[in-house]
Amino acid sequence: KKPPYSLLFIFGGSGDLNYRKLIPALFNLYVDQRMPDRFAIYGIGRSEYTNDRYRDHLLKGIKEFSRRKDKGDGAWETFAKNVSYLQFDASDASCYTQITDCITAKEKEFGVTPIVIFYLAVAPQLVPVIAKNLQQLPSCFQRESTRIVVEKPFGHDLQSAHELNLLLSNIFEEEQIYRIDHYLGKETVQNILAFRFANALFEPIWNRNYIDHIQITASETVGVDGRGDYYEGSGALRDMVQNHILQLLCMIAMEPPLSFDANEIRNKKTDVLNAIRKITRESVHGFAVRGQYAGGWMMGKQVKSYRQEDKVAPQSGVETFAAVKFYIDNWRWQDVPFYVRTGKRMNSKATAISVVFRPAPVFSFPQEAAETWRSNRIIFSITPEADIRLRFQAKRPGTAMTLNPVNMMFKYKDEYEVAEPEAYETLLLDVMEGDATLFMRSDQVEASWKVIMPIIEAWQSRPPIDFPNYSPGSWGPEDSEALIARDGHNWITLP
Ligand code: BG6
Which residues bind NADP(+) per the record (predicted)? Predict the structure, then answer.
């Protein structure tokens, strides 16, 4: 089944996200015959392009970033006929008539009312400006077939996120607003729901009685890569924890949904966020660690320190690494720690969730039987490999009773021949189809800001004195090891 006829207006049409992610994702969908039979994509930006030059520019992005780049049978040419460029300044209300003209023309051409999607891939300060200008467009908002997609960051703190929610809710119905978090479009992330709620095996032990603790790591090898101006106003906590990491935590920790209705799933996730124990500003140092990368050698090349990056203050106190210990105060998770960490310029690009079980209650083997005695674990690996692995103790072949840990692994690549779709493919398709399950509702966004505000405030009030405090290519600052070692655990790194 294909989505209904759609028009996509992409603000930030000459920007990086559109180039690297959105257009490649839309093209992949097209090649896989998942795009609507009739559609049109309009990139909106201030840079100067003719339609042809715009398409040439996007084709370069396809060649680099599309998983279907090898489609040499003219797919791009037919796809690109549906792509055009509107050059205008999004803050100038008088330019928006161009949008109305496009909609009217396409309505005539298609013979039906298409879905109209406004995708805001722009700097956060432009979101309210564009929303207000869109509000002036005649008739656009009377219908539920108009949707607005808002990229992260959604607000800069609780207050600004709340204000943005208010502003958007004055213009759109909640059902029309798609707050995107691309982690929710990743295959393994969605598979957490299947794993937990389509099997009878795991859910009975998915609680404080059997689970010792949970770890979430989202490490990156890249630095801020030319995004210094954005990152200076953000930092790791706002960039990754407030959204992606807390969403992963919700998927792992939520109660079983009664149905796959978008609101039901989002209710259950919001319950988790609301149950996260508030860290007081005074106790932040016991729960959260921040870091910033130094310069040095990494993967065979010299890399700059964060403070030397373009558009970064030479004495910047912005964190490029954050580790936090959370607790969820409910029946299922009381006193089970959730350790999360994320950072730039770390040892490897890896996103994984490790569920560590309690040890067997009695060890009835002789002490020397176990070479390494480790608890059972289930690890959801999201990047670089999408897989799920279960670790348990097994007997080593031989006459002696010797145990060692082994893995049972489900690998997407081995099991399914089709390539997993990119997160943005899934999410763009969902917007066209009107399925908001994998998008954030206003209360969810505010609830996650509430969780991290005390950390932000505590860090703001005490500038760091030890930055930079980790080497590029490492696993972050020493304090991060100490945070988890205090409770007798180690960070798990995947082989
Ligand atoms: C983005 C952050 O949301 O996620 C980036 O703004 C980060 O700083 C990126 O690099 C990571 O996404 P992924 O899909 O590569 O893990």
Answer: 46, 152
- Could you tell which of 220, 222, 420 is best to mutate to test the pocket of ligand 1, judged by most ligand atoms within 8 Å of the CB? 220
Contact 422 CB / ligand 1 (< 6 Å): no
For residue 141, the model assigns a pLDDT of 57
Q: Which residues of the chain have pLDDT under 70?
A: 139-142, 371-373, 495
Ligand 1 within 6 A of CB of 239: yes
Q: What is the pLDDT of residue 140?
A: 59
CA distance 270 to 258: 15
Q: From the alpha carbon of 382, which atom of ligand 1 is closest?
A: 16
- Tokens for 208, please give them: 């404080």
* pLDDT for 425: 96
Cα 255 from chain centroid (whole Å): 21
Q: What pLDDT, on the 0 to 100 scale, is given for residue 374? A: 75
Residue 232: per-residue pLDDT:
96
The residues, any chain, with a CB within 8 Å of residue 463's CB and separated by 6 or more, are 317
**Cis peptide, bond prior to residue 124, ω within 30 of zero:** no
**Pairing assessment for the beta strands 211-219 and 350-357 based on DSSP bridges:** antiparallel
Q: What is the pLDDT of residue 419?
A: 80
User: Does the beta carbon of 425 lie inside 6 Å of ligand 1?
Assistant: no
Separation between Cα atoms, residue 32 and residue 181, nearest integer Å:
23
Binding site, by residue number, is 46, 152, 182, 186, 220, 239, 344, 349
Binding residues for substrate are 182, 186, 220, 239, 344, 349
Q: Containing H/E element for 107?
A: helix 97-110
Nearest CA residue ID for atom 2, ligand 1: 239
Ligand 1 atom nearest 186 alpha carbon: 14
Residues 6+ apart with CB under 8 A from 323: 288, 289, 339, 340, 341, 342, 476, 479, 480, 483, 484
Please report how the helices 246-253 and 187-197 are oriented relative to each other, as an axis angle in degrees rounded to 10: 20
Atom of ligand 1 nearest to the CA of 220: 10
What spacing in Å lies between the alpha carbon of 223 and ligand 1's midpoint? 11
Separation in Å, CA 262 to CA 3, 66, 257, 259, 440: 18, 29, 10, 9, 10
Can you give the length of the chain in residues? Answer: 495
| Residues with a known catalytic role | 244
**And the tokens for 293?**
């990368």
Token pair, residue 137, equals 């467009």
| Cα angle value 492/409/371 (rounded, 5°) | 55
**How confident is the model over 276-325, as pLDDT tens digits?**
999 999 999 999 999 999 999 999 999 999 999 999 999 999 999 999 99
The two structure tokens encoding residue 470? 């980790």
Q: In this predicted structure, what is the pLDDT of residue 162? A: 97
The answer to whether the beta carbons of residues 433 and 29 sit under 8 Å apart is no
Contact criterion met (CB below 8 Å) for 469 and 292: yes
